[in-house]
Amino acid sequence: MRVQTPAAAAAALLFSTAVLPIHADDIVRADSHAPIGVMGDHYHDKGEWMFSYRYMDMSMKTNRDGTTDLSPEEVASNYANPFAPPPNLRVVPTKMDMQMHMVGVMYAPNDTVTLVGMLNYIEKDMEHLTYMGPTGTTELGTFVTRTSGMGDSSVSALVRLHENDNSRVHLTAGVTLPTGSTDETGQVLAPTGQEPTLRLPYPMQLGSGSYDLITGLTWVTMHKSWSWGTQWRGILRVFNNDEDYNLGDEHRFTAWGSKLFSPNWSGSARLEYYYRGNIDGMDAMIMAPVQTADPSRQGIKRLDASLGLNFESDGGHRLGAEFVYPLEQDLDGPQLKTDWQVIVGYQFAF
Ligand SMILES: [Cu+2]
Fold first, then answer.
1. How many CA atoms lie within 13 A of 320 on its CB side?
2. DSSP 81
3. What integer is the mean pLDDT of 207-226?
4. Is the predicted pLDDT of residue 25 greater than 60, yes or no?
């Protein structure tokens, strides 16, 4: 009998009428993993390990309140400073970039549970415009703040609930560990012209400071040359951090469709609804006439659309890339809008 490569075996199945097995690791099928921006989308069989690395770049610019875009002058003229005086916001963020390096390990001690551990390294920078004095729109100058370091880590379990020939369902339950800093400082330009070094506002901090719960449910269905999936993933901030606040809960509801071009290549389209609540409590060290210091100006409701590409080699090495563009965003603002995100990743199971 002719010896087939895994890709040839998969191709033979692809062009036959048979349904590809949902979870056969001896068969190459690029779309058996979700688009790379979906976390914890798949589990493993007993004894399998997987290593993953993801890089994410996120760009934010232009302020918005609700669904209305605002110029920096409008932010500085029309929005109250909760820590008055001065009566209005005087420092306006104009641009933010975030890069994230995520390393993950998966291991399945049995066929029901797959354990996942994740570490992050984050780099953030934010550009600001400072207006002079307590009122008016005379520009005083600009400044940039930068932070970098470990983000929060997580450990979670993926629990297989259902699997048949062409669909699978699993539950996600885990906890985040507060390994990211919440007391990063930076030099700022105050409306008085002074340049003090202060604890930076919440969006520039690297972690939540709290142990948070991770929840989720994933459902994937495979057809001969296409597949689709849907997932809910939440972070529930049920415990306060050491600074007497907790970041808002986060929920992601996503659905994707993937088309298999060949066993090694697939393309995907995905929608994601992202919700982030406001901060509960406050850090008494974060008080400045800037929107990012206000615990009630952190909430986000956003609908993102993504296009992605997955590649799987015959040896089980995977590459994935996804470009994410926001369709709609409703912000408890003023807050910077998300402009775009790019996620690329590498995965290897053994
Ligand atoms: Cu995996």
1. 33
2. -
3. 96
4. no
Amino acid at 21: P
Tens of pLDDT, residues 27-61:
899 999 999 999 999 999 999 999 999 999 999 99
pLDDT digits (tens, 9 = 90+) for 259-315: 999 999 999 999 999 999 999 999 999 999 999 999 999 999 999 999 999 999 988
Q: How far is the CA of 42 from the centre of ligand 1 (A)?
A: 6
Nearest to 73 by CA among 138, 26, 29: 138
Q: Give percent helix, percent strand, percent coil of the chain, each to the nearest 5.
A: 5, 55, 35
Look up the pTM and report it.
0.91
Stretch (H or E) spanning 338? strand 317-349
Report the C-alpha gap between 335 and 313 in whole angstroms: 42
- Sign of the alpha-carbon dihedral angle for 97, 276, 341, 171: positive
Alpha carbon separation from 158 to 71, 109, 225 (Å, rounded)? 45, 11, 26
Say how far apart CA 55 and CA 126 lie, in whole Å. 19
Length of the chain: 350
User: 152-192: per-residue pLDDT in tens?
Assistant: 999 999 999 999 989 999 999 999 999 999 999 999 999 99
**Measured in angstroms, how far is the CA atom of residue 282 from the centroid of ligand 1?**
37
Find tokens 């929608």 and name the residue: 271
Helix (H, G, I), strand (E, B) or coil at 91: strand
**Ligand 1 geometric centre to CA of 283 (Å):** 37
CA of 239 to the centre of ligand 1 (A): 29
6-349 domain in CATH 3.40.390.30?
Answer: no
The residue that leads in pLDDT, 201 or 244, is 201
Task: Give residue 152 CA to ligand 1 midpoint distance, Å.
Answer: 20
Q: Ligand 1 center to residue 4 CA distance, Å? A: 25
Calculate the alpha carbon distances from 34 to 196, 222, 228, 347 in Å: 46, 11, 8, 12
Q: How far is the CA of 22 from the centre of ligand 1 (A)?
A: 14
How far, in Å, is the centroid of ligand 1 from the Cα of 128? 40
pLDDT score at 64:
97
